[in-house]
Write a structure and sequence with these properties.
Two copies of one chain form a homodimer.
Chain A (H helix, E strand, L loop, with lengths): L6 H26 L10 H5 L1 H23 L4 H33 L7 H24 L6 H39 L7 H5 L2 H16 L18
Keywords (chains A, B): Electron transport, Heme, Iron, Membrane, Metal-binding, Transmembrane, Transmembrane helix, Transport
Membrane topology (chains A, B): Multi-pass membrane protein
Cofactor (chains A, B): heme b
């Protein structure tokens, strides 16, 4: 059921969308929402770390990690190392981003974990970490038998894609939630900041092109081994 | 990259989750939000048609349509007819559900199309309808050559899954948006209605199990032709 496309071309689209989404979330947090701080009396600056860190980690770095096997010109072992290191960085930054949201809530005495975005978010970071952990044990260190690795691969991909789709979806939920809060507090529903919410659409497109690469066929000219998710 | 599971078993989980999600959205709309009306001075009753119709159409019926090939005991041609009819009903009910949201906005003089949920929603219904239309032409009437149908199948599946994931994600967005509006208007953040928002999690689970069936292998005992998405 693989889609016949030139994945290396699509990878350029992915990288371009990654840049656009990252720039947009920075512009939003800095130009519209006032920038960042880890300690401040202006608690909004603490919150602003949350969308930037979580989008760039679990969505952007996570997406680039997922397509590393098919987008990078290195040999498979190098791509595998990049795959797991990028995912590890994504998890660390993701946890930091989630911590920023709790810190903001605690310091402003807002209750924690009362929205669907927060519930799904906790689910995403737990599942993402579990996915990394068991995959590290099965595929890297100490590594299981090649039969098990090969047979488990479709599950690794399905579960990974599942967690990734949840992460992308939850970013979009987060953008919507924040904009809804702001609009309820008086932000112009058709003003430039409201339309800056179109970064949610860019995020969805980014995730879609990542999955398009996952479900694409190897080009006929490439050796199977250097262009696939086959287990090593 | 197919996952080795017993899809007929998983289909039972899907049907069960479909029932739970449908009951929950009805209970929410009727017991918590006051029920339905097409014409009323209480405009909330008009809005209440929106979550019920869109969830049951594009998500529940859409999901059941997607897995029809793998969940129903009929022969392939019958499943194909069920697949396209269920999707057609989903589109009609979906449009009606979206219309209810516009009707509610118009009669209450709320601006239309200012949220991410509404933008993605318009995208979903347009793409869902286009997906149905080109697929009808390619696979049903007048129907194209078997080569084209076979070669186009991975795209049909990928695009279909893409639109479906958008539909599921957008339902979750919608639940979150409505609950955020209600909580901003004084609804208890930890009250029973807020926790009824867990239907969003049921919806995500439903969508996940639908996709698990899509990406599952045929059981060895089944004939390939009676248990797959191969083009007919």
């Amino acid at each position: 059921m693989s889609v016949g496309i030139n994945s290396r071309m699509v990878a350029f689209v992915v990288h371009a969308l990654a840049v656009v989404a990252s720039v947009m979330v920075f512009v939003w947090s800095i130009c519209y929402r006032g920038g960042f701080a880890w300690e401040s009396t202006n608690k909004t600056l603490i919150f602003n770390l949350h969308p930037v860190l979580t989008l760039i980690s679990l969505v952007i770095l996570g997406g680039e990690a997922i397509i590393s096997y098919k987008s990078l010109p290195f040999e498979k072992r190098a791509n595998k190392l990049i795959h797991l290191v990028l995912h590890a960085i994504a998890i660390v930054l993701g946890i930091l981003g989630i911590y920023a949201a709790f810190k903001h809530h605690n310091e402003k005495h807002i209750p924690n974990l009362y929205t669907i975005h927060s519930w799904v978010g906790i689910g995403v970071i737990v599942l993402y970490s579990l996915q990394w952990l068991y995959s590290f044990i099965v595929y890297f260190f100490p590594g299981r038998s090649s039969t098990l690795r090969r047979e488990f691969l479709p599950w690794h991909i399905f579960l990974g894609v599942f967690v990734y789709v949840l992460a992308v979806g939850n970013s979009v939920l987060g953008f919507l939630e924040k904009l809804t809060f702001l609009e309820k507090s008086g932000l112009d529903k058709f003003g430039s900041e409201a339309f800056h919410g179109s970064m949610a659409i860019i995020t969805i497109l980014f995730g879609t092109f990542v999955l398009l690469i996952v479900y694409s066929k190897a080009p006929p000219s490439d050796e199977e081994d250097n262009y696939s998710y086959s287990a090593i």
